[in-house]
Each structure stands twice: as structure tokens, then as C-alpha cells.
Specification:
mainly alpha, 3 helical TM bundles of succinate and fumarate reductases, about 0% strand, elongated
Length: about 130
């Protein structure tokens, strides 16, 4: 009741059914921010790894040997999943900006999730033989 009243006050004239559907939009927004932060953190780590080349060939080879451990290879599947979601949801937001699909946020979100799952599944299938070499 209180949340319905709050929504009515914050968004006058918007039907109650639309409020329920836009919760999906909030989750899409939150996941976009979280995946963006994770990608920035990954980029900083990636730059740090590449920067070990300044220390010489031995240090760089040692670092690359460390990050080629199967655990890091498996984490790459997670990275691919994050990149896919961030990309697909970003396209969804751009479509909203040009006026396409604004009233179909839930369908757009679930399409992003489905495409991400398909891409992550494909990357898993293709990566497993490389992890256990």
C-alpha cells in the first residue's frame, strides 16, 4: 500500500501496472552500473598486468604464467558474461533513447538476459577445452 501511494505521488498519471513492470527496468539499470564498475576494475587490473612488461621479459613472462592458470581462464567466462550483458543492455538503452521499446522494458531486459545466457553458454562450451589442456 505504501509503495503504491509513493509511486502515485512520484509518478502521477502513470498506471499502477506500469510501476510493476518498471521494477525490471530498475534491475536492468542496477546491473548496468554494477557491470560497468566490474569492467573498470578489470581494465585497471589488465593495465597493471600489461605494465609488468616495463620490468623486463622475465617479470612479464612470470606474470603471464600466473594469469594463465585455469582459475583465471575460468574467470574469463565470467568476464565475457559481464561484457555481453553490459553490451546488450547498453544497446537496449540506446534504443530507448531513440524512442524504441520504451513501453516494453521487461521484454527488452529479458531479451538481454537471454542473449547474455546464450553467449555465456557458447563461451563456456568453447572455453572448457582450453581450460583443461
Amino acid at each position: 500500500m505504501a509503495s503504491g501511494l509513493r509511486n502515485a505521488l512520484l509518478h502521477p498519471g502513470v498506471p499502477r501496472e506500469l510501476h510493476a513492470r518498471t521494477r525490471v527496468g530498475w534491475w536492468a539499470w542496477a546491473l548496468q552500473r554494477v557491470t560497468g564498475v566490474v569492467l573498470v576494475a578489470y581494465l585497471l587490473v589488465h593495465i597493471a598486468v600489461i605494465s609488468t612488461s616495463i620490468l623486463g621479459v622475465a617479470a612479464f613472462d612470470s606474470t603471464l604464467g600466473f594469469v594463465q592458470h585455469p582459475v583465471f581462464e575460468a574467470l574469463n567466462i565470467g568476464l565475457i558474461t559481464i561484457v555481453l550483458y553490459h553490451t546488450f543492455n547498453g544497446v537496449r538503452v540506446v534504443l530507448f533513447d531513440v524512442g524504441i521499446g520504451i513501453r516494453r522494458q521487461a521484454e527488452g531486459f529479458w531479451t538481454c538476459v537471454a542473449l547474455t545466457a546464450l553467449g555465456a553458454g557458447a563461451s563456456f562450451v568453447l572455453s572448457v577445452p582450453l581450460i583443461f589442456v
